[in-house]
Each structure stands twice: as structure tokens, then as C-alpha cells.
Amino acid sequence: MKRSLGSRSIAYPVPVWVIGTYDREGKPNVATAAWVGICASEPPAVCVSLRKERYTHANILDRKAFTVNIPSEDYLKETDYFGLTSGFRHNKTAETGLTPVKGDLVDAPYLKEFPCVIECKLLGHTDVGSHTAFIGEILDVKMDEEMLKEDGTPDVEKLKPLVLIPGSASYYGVGKYLGKAYSVGKYCCSVT
């Protein structure tokens, strides 16, 4: 029997991303976000939802760009710190010793140490209650070569991305390989 948990903003799990922006003076800022995801294939796009009072919120509106930095388990403490502190009062990259790098295609920084970076141009935004949903067109995805398989696709076991379990406020790593997407379902039923 299923138990109702009520109307809540939880889905299990959610990716943990670090959003990179510049402020009006050109200072790099990074902020942890978990209300995120791919939202379109053509053009390739992501959605990042942030509260209006967040430092990153104004930065995205001013610069019309942001980066998505996908941390590995190696940067768990820094990733959590980026969500605990505000760019209004802290220079987070200086405090953690991580290296902001100017994006090649957008007016936003990314973190050199993080294994995967997505450069995004702001396509639009809409207010959704307590948050603003920012839609960013993906202009480029950069990944450390050692994170790629021989065929050029990402190796999630090397990447070791973080996920968050909302409600319990717990970080986890990615689990074991279970099967090939768009393939294992072919063996589910006798109907083809």
C-alpha cells in the first residue's frame, strides 16, 4: 500500500549542479542548485530554478548566461559550501581554492576542477511561485578526457556525479550499472 506524502517538491533523486555566473562587476560566483534538469532536445536546453533573492538569480538576468558545472564526489564539501554561502558576502572560488575559467562561448565562468561543464545562453525565464525557472540553451558541453569512454561518451562511473535526496537532505553517488536504455525494455513483454 502506498502512503500519501502530500503535495511536496520532491522527486528521487535530483542531480546536483553548480551554476556559474559573473556579477555586474565581473566577479565569478558559483551556487549549488538541485531544482535542475534537461528540458529540451532541440535546441538542447536545461532548466535551472532559483529563488529570486539569490545572488545568482540577478547575475543570470544581467549577463544572459550561466554555466552548469557537474561536480564529482571528490568535490562534495566544496559543492555543499557553494549552497551554504551567499555570493553577496563571499568570494566562494577564492575561499575554496577552485579555479574559475571564463567560458569560451558565454559570459559566465566555469570551474576548471569539475569534470563536466555546460555553457548556456539564457533563452528565457518564468516565475513559478517561490522560484524563477531559467531556460538555458546548451551551446557546448566540455568534459575531461579521462571521463570519456573509448567511443567518446561519458563514463558515469569515472565521472561520479552527485545526486540529492530531497526531504532527507542527503547526497549520494550514482549506483551500479543496470542495463542499456532503450534496449532492456525490448525483453519485457512478448509484444514487439
Structure, described:
The protein is mostly beta strands. The protein has one domain: Pnp Oxidase, Chain A (Roll), CATH 2.30.110.10. The protein has a seven-stranded antiparallel β-sheet with strand order 3-2-6-9-10-5-4. The chain has a three-stranded antiparallel β-sheet with strand order 1-11-12, with no helix packed on it. It has a two-stranded antiparallel ribbon with strand order 7-8. The chain is globular and about 60 Å long. One of its GO terms (molecular function) is FMN binding. Belongs to the flavoredoxin family. This is Flavoredoxin Flr. Its cofactor is FMN.
Compact description:
Keywords: Flavoprotein. The chain has 4 helices and 12 strands, in the order βββββαβααββββαββ.
Q: What brief labels describe this structure?
A:
Flavoredoxin; 36% strand; 14% helix; single chain; 192 residues; 3-stranded antiparallel beta sheet; Pnp Oxidase, Chain A; Split_barrel_FMN-bd; mainly beta; 4 helices; flavoprotein; globular
How would the global form be characterised? Answer: globular
The named CATH superfamily = Electron Transport, Fmn-binding Protein, Chain A
Poorly predicted spans: none
**N-to-C CA distance:** 32 Å
By CATH reckoning, the class would read: Mainly Beta
